[in-house]
Amino acid sequence: MLATLQRLRRNSLASMVFTIAVVLGLVFAVQALAIKPYQIPSESMEPTLTVGQRVIVERVGHRLGNTPKVGDIIVFHPAQDAAGGRCEDHDQGGGTPTPCEVPAKVADKDTFIKRVVGVPGDRIQIRRGRVIRNGKTTKEPFIRGCGSAGDCTFARTITVPKDTVYVLGDNRGESEDSRFWGPVRTKWIIGNAVGTYWPPKRVGGL
User: Do 102 and 190 share a domain, yes or no?
Assistant: First the structure.
């Protein structure tokens, strides 16, 4: 009788360990394939997202081939050395700057988070930080004013190329984005930011 009870305990323990292992495996699999947490590293998306805020990034849709829509907030790999202002078309002198139109060929290993303002075929112009899309001023109540700084107005309208999206930070005066290093190739996109879970007072969808 005692031996039987010991065997049952061992079997029960083994079953519990197996169940825990399966559950943990599923959790890690879901994180790897479906969702991923991301912490906001800079002020470029204020006031929508603040430094240190944490968001959930949904990755399934992109893996299935979905293309982000205008207004989506995405996490992606930018152009290589994006923080340095890669684009040759962007005038760093005293003249009126020209927005980058040609996507970079190589992605950086870092990850950025920005808002999609243009998809393939869209004609984009930027005036005082606001996007003129296909000839119409877009409604962007979520952005922080850009004022009259040199990087807030661009002289030329560009067309978003195939297999790319054009992205800007909501804090237009303090963001390194497609204006400086061009459209983001869709194959560099990690996923859509769909909600925020920290800090508690800002929990909710995006």
Answer: yes
